[in-house]
Amino acid sequence: MTTPETHRPNRIALASLLKWVCVAVVLALFTASPASVSACPMCKIAHEDATDPAVQARPRAYMYSIFFMLAMPAGLVTLFGVTFYRLSKKQQELNAILLSQADEQGLSGRVE
């Protein structure tokens, strides 16, 4: 019969092998990627050289639109998180008040 101690070195060797396989796959993906990565077509158009001030302002406009798109989910998550945090703190305060009132009245719920 085998003991857990005999299986432990095999698990460590397997974990080490798995780690090296993951490193090899990541390196292979980075070395196999094309030399130049093209951006989206609208970004390429936005960065073209032009003398028109409106065309020169496009990259900044795209930057701001991306910031707003990223900020909206983060803002909603923050809003819900803060709201639930405040609700839980308020509930804890109410529970503490009710518990102290019950102790004062002798209704602590303890069975003697």
Overall description:
With 112 residues, this protein is mainly alpha-helical. It has one domain (4-105). 78% of the residues lie in helices and 0% in strands. The chain is built from four helices and no strands. It has helices spanning 4-32, 41-46, 53-56, 58-105. The longest helix is centred in the last third of the chain and has 48 residues, at 58-105.
Q: Top keywords for this entry?
A:
single chain; 112 residues; mainly alpha; 4 helices
Secondary structure topology:
Layout: H1 4-32, H2 41-46, H3 53-56, H4 58-105
Give a brief rundown of this model.
The protein has 112 residues and is mostly helical.
Shape: flat
| Quaternary structure state of the chains depicted | single chain
Number of domains: 1
Number of DSSP-assigned strands? 0
How is the main sheet built?
Answer: none
| Termini Cα gap | 53 Å
**Total number of helical segments?**
4
Helix content: over 70%
Strand content: under 5%
- Helix and strand content put the structural class at mainly alpha
Radius of gyration: 30 Å
Element order, helices and strands?
HHHH
Low-confidence stretches: none
**Mean residue pLDDT:** 77
